[in-house]
């Protein structure tokens, strides 16, 4: 596992200016710091107009603060880029030079095609082996690209952001026709039918958040949220309703974002209809994460982001980080017939099983749940995330009946819930042998007819005891009551 030297990325967008500082494992970076200022540069640059003096000064002040924050955090590298608003404005060079003079950091004004490319790479950072189309909605523009076999192609950009549509509102007789005509120019991206689409950008995430609230979805995290287009349609209609803008307190979204959502919702509705989209996946990763991916070696790109994140938390938070590989191999009879995708999550759970050790016993399960279901761990679907959380809950003293019947855990298929119980109980047993040295090669873990028995080498009987026997019984009860063989992966 290779760690970052901290990188600060400053994104000068059409609707906001953001600083994100990345830290942690290279293949699964964590947000050390994240700050955003809503600033509608796109409203000024529309049609190639110049930024006025006040805007130039205001933006440079925001950037100067961001650069100071980065240097105070001892950032190894600062990357600063501008997108559509800077591409459009006639005097972007003045802003770039002002920022350079004040901070000694250059601004890269990236093309629409390059923006699409980086956005697609952001998807590859967050979703291993992703396949499909990306759609990155900014303030002024929207970018599309195709991902196939870890290769990005068909990068396109169109002036279809909500700020552009808003500016066109008074001049264009039929906005729907304008949007369809603009989309027609990027039709090649959707050459294959029934492609998955990954949605990137603040407006898309806000739409996902509203949909989650409306359907009472039990997870809060946007990354990896999947929804069928036919189920999203009612939410898109709700957002375009006449009373929507009065509901900012209800939906808990900033007014600056909220007032652009009806236009974004209409655009998404047209995209779904024009390209016959059936399934949408929302992503928190985009251009900034794509720039991180760009700096990875070929070897790093091939690593599993979930496992890399688990290794990082294991090393940072657990008591005996060397024990996980031994415990994973020791309980292998419990999962040896399961699919590779399931084994991958079990491996991650083995590395994360002890992250709540410092918490009071009454709060260990709550802490596990919070860390797994709310952190920005990538490379994992929502079903896998909950499955992982369940294993950690059962590794502690969680009540199976209560967990199985919770709305959150019902995201996971019934057989997977039963597997989580067995693996969790297996890890609970394994922890009784943890320490600075491995004892697992001296204790044979046997599984016969869905019953576990432990066989201790001579002179090792002293490591057995009441707690060990009780946990063997708990595991055997789980094995007797629940089936651990599954036919389908997630």
Explain how this protein is built.
This protein is α/β, with parallel strands linked by helices and 490 residues long. The chain folds into 3 domains: 7-109, ATPase, nucleotide binding domain (Nucleotidyltransferase, domain 5, 2-Layer Sandwich), CATH 3.30.420.40; 112-289, 2-Layer Sandwich (Nucleotidyltransferase, domain 5); 304-481, Hypothetical protein af1432. Helices cover 47% and strands 16% of the residues. It contains 22 helices and 13 strands. The strands form 3 sheets. It has a 6-stranded mixed beta sheet. It has a 5-stranded mixed beta sheet with strand order 3-2-1-4-5. Strands 12-13 form a two-stranded antiparallel sheet. A hairpin with a 2-residue loop joins β12 and β13. It is elongated. Residues 483-490 have low confidence and may be disordered.
């Amino acid at each position: 596992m290779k760690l970052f030297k901290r990188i600060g990325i400053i994104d000068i967008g059409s609707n906001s200016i953001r600083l994100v500082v990345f830290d942690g494992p290279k293949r699964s970076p964590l947000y050390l710091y994240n700050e955003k200022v809503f600033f509608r540069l796109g409203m000024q640059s529309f049609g190639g107009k110049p930024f006025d003096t006040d805007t130039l000064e205001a933006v440079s002040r925001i950037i100067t603060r961001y650069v100071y924050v980065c240097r105070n955090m001892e950032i190894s590298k600062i990357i600063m880029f501008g997108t559509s608003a800077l591409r459009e404005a006639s005097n972007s060079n003045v802003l770039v030079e002002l920022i350079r003079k004040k901070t000694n950091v250059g601004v890269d004004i990236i093309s629409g095609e390059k923006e699409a490319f980086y956005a697609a790479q952001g998807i590859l950072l967050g979703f291993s082996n992703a396949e499909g189309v990306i759609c990155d909605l900014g303030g002024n523009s929207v970018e599309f690209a195709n991902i196939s076999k870890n290769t990005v192609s068909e990068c396109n950009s169109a002036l279809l952001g909500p700020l552009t549509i808003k500016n066109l509102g008074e001049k264009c007789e039929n906005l729907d026709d304008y949007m369809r005509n603009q989309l027609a120019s990027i039709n090649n991206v959707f050459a294959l039918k029934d492609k998955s689409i990954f949605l990137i950008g603040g407006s898309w995430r806000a739409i996902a958040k509203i949909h989650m609230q409306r359907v009472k979805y039990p997870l809060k995290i946007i990354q990896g949220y999947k929804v069928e287009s036919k189920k999203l349609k009612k939410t898109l209609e709700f957002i375009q309703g006449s009373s929507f803008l009065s509901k900012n307190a209800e939906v808990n979204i900033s007014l600056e974002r909220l007032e652009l959502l009806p236009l974004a919702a209409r655009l998404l509705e047209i995209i779904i209809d024009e390209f016959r989209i059936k399934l949408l996946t929302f992503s928190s990763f985009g251009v900034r994460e794509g720039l991180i991916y760009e700096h990875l070696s070929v070897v790093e790109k091939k690593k599993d982001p979930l496992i890399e994140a688990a290794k990082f938390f294991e090393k940072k938070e657990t008591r005996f980080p060397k024990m996980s590989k031994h415990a994973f191999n020791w309980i292998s009879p419990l999962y040896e017939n399961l699919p590779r995708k399931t084994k991958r999550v079990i491996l991650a759970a083995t590395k994360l099983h002890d992250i709540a050790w410092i918490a009071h016993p009454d709060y260990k399960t709550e802490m596990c749940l919070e860390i797994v279901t709310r952190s920005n761990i990538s490379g994992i679907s929502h079903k896998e995330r909950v499955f992982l959380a369940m294993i950690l809950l059962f590794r502690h003293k969680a009540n199976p009946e209560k967990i199985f019947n919770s709305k959150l855990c019902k995201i996971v298929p019934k057989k997977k819930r039963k597997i989580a119980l067995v693996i969790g109980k297996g890890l609970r047993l394994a922890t009784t042998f943890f320490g600075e040295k491995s004892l697992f090669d001296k204790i044979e873990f046997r599984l016969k007819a869905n019953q576990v028995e432990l066989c201790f080498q001579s002179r090792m009987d002293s490591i057995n005891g009441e707690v060990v026997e009780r946990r063997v019984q708990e595991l055997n009860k789980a094995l007797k009551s629940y089936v651990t063989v599954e036919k389908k992966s997630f």
